[in-house]
Specification:
Number of strands: 26
Shape: globular
Distance between the termini: 16 Å
Order of helices and strands: EEHEEEEEEEEEEEEEEEEEEEEEEEE
Largest sheet: 5 strands, mixed
Radius of gyration: 21 Å
Helix content: under 10%
Amino acid sequence: MNRPFVNLVVSKLSGRRPVLNLHRIDPAGLFHPAAAAAGSAAALVPARGRMPPAAVSFDWPCPGWMSFMAIKNNVIATDHEGRTLFYDGALRAIRAMSPITYPMPSSISFTVGDELYVLGREPGRSRQLQPFQRLRLKDWRWSRSEPLPTVNIDCRDPTYFPYKLGVEEAYDPYALAAHTVVDDSHIWVSTLGAGTYSFDTDGGRWSKIGCWALPFRGRAEYVPERGLWFGFSAQDEHLCAVDLQQERPVLPSRVFPLLHVWEGQPPPPLEGQWTLTASHLLPLGSGKLCVSKLFRRTEGQLSSEHTHHKKADSLVVLAGVEIIKDPAGTGSLHIIRHKSVRYNVAGNVKPL
């Protein structure tokens, strides 16, 4: 596998000062030695796992926040004042970097070649306050790139589409709905209601490429062994595959057709009121993927004076899946479900 670790950032809320722990899990343990051993009913039930010791811990700035991004086998951490740290996974060492140009508590990042791009999750709310930033790995310097273009939307325009993520989420036409990297040179982002945009990393320019939406929710990953993009469908969060190299949609379809859809695993049997909060897909190479599901449970009553009465726990389930071609030569793809492991933690979890 090309990816030696799955990174989990866990916020430890207990103790005098909260800390952020980076745990690194070897994904090889999510796969059977042979595909024939996978797929049984017993293999689909998550085994209880014990989180490995933290590779490194970060002191939570108070007041303030920290944001984490993965870049290949390494991790970058920034705080509310722009201070930036680089964790070298091979050396197991931390070094200070030049400060990020504009700190953002909520962002998405893309690795394209030897550059890291960072974009705010809601770039349309304030164009000046949500810049698009680039980190060049050659000199480890941050710079600003052209921000995502924004224009006024007329709901009577036939190219406008109300592409919402959920009924409980605030509707912002320029909030990001889905994103991915295409041809290792273009960053594609779909907005909730303003179409899909492409950033040319060679030319450094944005362009609107259509009034259609990527059919994913959140990040989609390209799997070169299969020549397709994999992610979670926007409608039901099933694992799906799409060919973004095919002819782009035209009105009135507005979406790329899904080539393959695999229904998700039933949630693990859990005690208490657990809610699925996020799904992530991490490519491992050789057609193998790590699927992470995050669950959240809150007990007690929220009190402004006694916040300790409200206890929050998280559960992360990691599952190893493998995408293979049909042995009969039909051209279709099959999914092999290997092992799954569940980890209980006290606090929030962010996979990288």
